Each structure stands twice: as C-alpha cells, then as structure tokens.
Amino acid sequence: MKQLIENLIKNSIYSLDKDGSVNPSLIANIRVDRTKDRAHGDFATNIAMILAKPLKKNPRQIAEDIIAALPKDDHISKVEIAGPGFINFFVNKDAISKALKDMSADPRLGIPKVKTPKTIVVDYSAPNVAKEMAVHHIRSTVIGDAVVRVLEFLGNNVIRANHIGDWGTQFGMLIAYLEKKENESGQGMDLSDFEAFYREAKECYDTDEEFAVKARHYVVLLQGGDEYCRKMWKKLVNMTMVQNQKLYDRLDVTLSDKDIMGESLYNDMLPEVVDDLMKRGIAVEDQGAVVVYLPQFKNKEGKPLGNIIRKNDGGYLYTTTDIACAKYRAQTLKADRILYFTDSRQQQHLETVWAICKKAGYVGDNVSMEHCPFGMMLGKDGKPFKTRSGGTVKLRDVLDEAEARVTNLLKERNSTLSEDEKKQVIHNIAIGAVKYADLCKNRTTDYVFDWDQMLSFEGNTAPYLQYAYSRIRAIFRKAKDPSLGDIKITCDAEEDLANKILAFAEAVQSVGDKTLPNLLCNYIFELSNLFMHFYEACPILKDDVPEDVRKSRLALCDLTAKVLKQGLSLLGINVMEQM
Ligand code: ARG
C-alpha cells in the first residue's frame, strides 16, 4: 500500500514538473508514513513541504496541485490536505481485503526479495580460542544471527564471518600447557573448562621459568609453520569450536564450522600489507616499529595518533589483521557491505582500520563498512553481569538455568503434552526468552539481565509472543469448521490488526537497512497486542457469529499466526502449536 501511494505521488509530480526543476533525488526519496490517528487518513506524506523550497511555492498550493494530478486508483477512497501541507490518504477497505488475500497466498507473506542482491559479510560471534564465550560474544552471536537471517531472507548473498581469536603470542603458552596436560594423563584431553585451562597455563608461565622459555620458543616455531606446533594449535582451535558449536546449536544460531574465518586466516597477507603501506608512504618506520599516522585521530597533545601495525620485534597486531581482513572481504569476497557486530568499545579500533583501508584503496568508497555496536549486559544491580564471585558468567550456565526455571514454571500447568514435546517446549521458551531479552532492546544501549522479566508471560517477552501464536493455533483446534474465507473489515479492531499485518514487510526491511532487530521485535509485540485486542473484541467461534464473518476472522487469525511464526523465525525464535 505504501509503495503504491509513493508511486502515485511520483507520477503526479512527474506530470506537474514538465521542465524538470525538481531534483530527482527528492522524488526518489518520497516518504509515505502511516498516520497515528486514522480519523485523518491511513497514510500521509510531507512531500509538499519538502518541494516548497525548490519550487518556490506555498506547500498547501503544491499539495493541491499534486492531488489534482494524482492518477485515479481504486485502493484510495479519499485524499485530503491537512495542516501546513500534509497530504493524507484514506484507504479503500476493500483494498485492505485484497492486500490481505494476496499476502495469504504468498509464501513470503508479501516480503519481496531485493532487486539487486548485495554481497554482505557479517562479522559476528567471534569468540576467542581456549576461552569461555564472554557476555559480549553472546550479544554479538544472538543479534548478529538475527540480522543475518533477515538479510538472507531478503535475498542477499550473506557471508557469515566468525572472526575467532585464533592467533597471538598466548598460543606458545597454551601449546606448552596442552603438551604438559597430555603428558601427565598419557592421553588426549577434552578441553571443556576453558577458564581453568587458561588460568593454569598462565600460572605455569608466570611461575615456572623452564615452562616460560618453552612457551616463548613455541610461539616462534608456530609462527614459522612448525608441524608439531601447528598440530597442537589446531587441536586447541578444534576443541574450542566443538564446545562453541554445541552452544550455537543449543541457541538455534545458524553458524557452523564452515563460517569460521579466524584471525589466522589473514597471516599470510600481513607482511605484504605492511610492505605495501610502507612503500606507498602510508606507513612509516618509527623506532623500529611500523606506524600509520592518521590526521583525523589526534592524541592528547593534538598530534596525529600513531597506529602501530608492526611491532619492533616484528610481531603484528589486532589492527594489522583487521586491515588485511577488510581488504580480503572487499577484494576477494567482493563485499558490497561489511557489518561488524562488536561491542561499542571497539569503535575507535574499527574506524582506524577502515581509515587505513580507504586511504590505501583496499576498500572502495562503494563498500559500506558498518559498525553495529551494542552496549553491555548488566546485572539487576546495574553493574556488569558477573557471577556471585565476580567471574565471567558462562553461557552454558545461563542456558541451563533458563531451562531449569522454565521447567519449574510449567510444572503447575496441566498439559497433555508427551515428555518429548514438553522437552521441546521448555527448550523453545527458555532459549527464546534469553535471546529475545537481548534482541528486543535497541542494541546500542546497555541492558539489564533480569530472569523474572524475560520469563514473564506478559509484556514484551518471547513467552508472551509464543503464547500468542499457540493461542491462535488453539482456536483452530477448537473450531468445528476451521476453513478460511475472504477477509472483510467490519470493525476497528479488525482494521487495526489488518493494517499491522500489512506492515510486516516494512518492519523486516527496516531490520535489514538499520541492522536493528528490535524494530522487528517491536513490530511483533504490537501485532500480538492488536491480536489479543481483536480476540477480545471480536467473537469468532460463538454460535451467533455468521459463517462469512467467522471465516473472515479465522483467516485473519491464520494470517496473524503466519506472520508471528515467520517474524519470530527471522529472530531465531521457535513457536509451538501448544505450550
Ligand atoms: N575476537 C574479538 C573479541 O573477542 C572480536 C572480533 C571482532 N571482529 C573483528 N573483525 N575484529 O573481542
């Protein structure tokens, strides 16, 4: 409907503006919005006000001209001018019915694929080897995966890039410790408690000189491609990612082994990149190190900030790797867009990397590099989310606790579900609640992790939305005749719900454009509220409801359920028939 009105306005302006005095980009960016108050129409645009300046005319006059030249269309019943020059459109109710019918018949529920698919690299999750996934990795994983699902559904070529921290000088120490453990036990080990492993390795390194010497030697060997050290290193990477994959699977996250593109992938490129930057004068030698000075970043004294890309011992840094990585994504993967889901503290790091890449021409101006930052996860006390003893909260423990709490919550309900079904329901609610709590707030803000809030069946929570879905499915189980008919709008509650359903495509598209899953969460929440309102206001299965009304309302229920299911699935959350 929105698209249609935009096109009508465009045609009207073209026919008015014969001499082309209106900048085409103004016309291309016409905005049509839904109105808040339906008494003044269903859609409105401010285009007349925007055109007032270039056309040097009064906006109300322009609005009048646009309306006069508007092509006739059956979908619109009335057009009016309001205030300083808004144009308000009243939609023909039959047109709503027709749009709903088209949407019901479309497996994509009215969401078109993009005309020109883009290659979009999404950098997300990115845990570190031999370390527990920390809170910022969870946020990155959950939010990144929702955006990935949306971009893919919109028809783009999405490349998931799990930029794991699998390289660095700490690997000498880790290899030496792995060797020690294996020698002690006389067999391979199964690394499951990363925190302990890392801590013990560090302890050996700090207290045992012989161990430290060996560790430093192993770093050199590993960097030189030594077979034994490579093998031990690979073991560490694999053990870590096997554990992480279990968490991805449990979280219904779409990442798999083939998406691992860790820091080590770019090792071979690092010497070339540094040489190239030096040869072209972008990097200079400074006290044995190689440094890039960028005028746009200044230190406290107002001098250009130096960014080391090779240390004086020849070692490379996180920045160097990310320069090579961005180059690879632009030149080899041919990305049109590169999204980085990392916490907000990495902003300066990324901006530095991008500035160097642009200056060197590694990434063209046509490539959009976007930092999609997120805030911290806080405990109920407003402080960073930690265990009682102040340690990192393990994702595994969070998921276990979520399932235990849901099991408890559901105990009191009598249910006809089998044990297997119950297990699945517990999984869906627990995982859905944890993920949704993270997704539903604007990601740029910190958010408070609150069990009671996220597991509540009321409010903007996954259980509430899942319940709305199950409730609709229950209506169909109860109906003697569950067949659907054409949707006819007979009252406000129906119309509100119908209009919301028709806004699904916009909500999904906005997540793709703005990389903010909370926009889709808000949409689904509002849809559920409108459904609950409709359900209270409009009887469906009561005996005195005429057949055509019942069938129309059942069709509205069915379409709502489909949108709920699809919408939640784009967020990575499951629904169930019964819960
Ligand atoms: N492994 C990093 C961390 O734990 C995140 C990597 C983000 N991606 C990147 N290309 N730098 O903070």
Précis, in short:
It contains 21 helices and 13 strands.
Overview of this structure, please?
Helix 13 (347-359) links the parallel strand 10 and strand 11. It is flat, with a radius of gyration of 29 Å. It has 21 helices and 13 strands. The two termini are 35 Å apart. It has helices at residues 2-16, 24-28, 47-55, 59-68, 93-105, 135-153, 170-185, 194-207, 209-223, 227-250, 269-279, 318-331, 347-359, 395-411, 419-439, 451-454, 462-478, 492-502, 504-514, 518-537, 547-570; strands at 32-34, 43-45, 76-82, 86-91, 119-123, 157-161, 283-286, 289-298, 304-310, 337-340, 368-371, 377-378, 447-448. Helix 19 packs antiparallel against helix 20. The protein has a 4-stranded antiparallel β-sheet with strand order 1-2-4-3. The protein has a 4-stranded parallel β-sheet with strand order 6-5-10-11, with helices on both faces. Strands 7-8-9 form a 3-stranded antiparallel β-sheet. The protein is α/β, with parallel strands linked by helices and 579 residues long. The structure holds arginine. Residues 123, 126, 128, 163, 165, 322, 325, 340, 342 line the site of arginine.
Please specify the SSE layout and strand pairing.
Layout (H helix, E strand, L loop, with lengths): L1 H15 L7 H5 L3 E3 L8 E3 L1 H9 L3 H10 L7 E7 L3 E6 L1 H13 L13 E5 L11 H19 L3 E5 L8 H16 L8 H14 L1 H15 L3 H24 L18 H11 L3 E4 L2 E10 L5 E7 L7 H14 L5 E4 L6 H13 L8 E4 L5 E2 L16 H17 L7 H21 L7 E2 L2 H4 L7 H17 L13 H11 L1 H11 L3 H20 L9 H24 L9
Parallel strand pairs: 5-6, 5-10, 10-11, 12-13
Antiparallel strand pairs: 1-2, 2-4, 3-4, 7-8, 8-9
Bound molecules: arginine.
The site of arginine (ARG) has 9 residues, from helix 12.
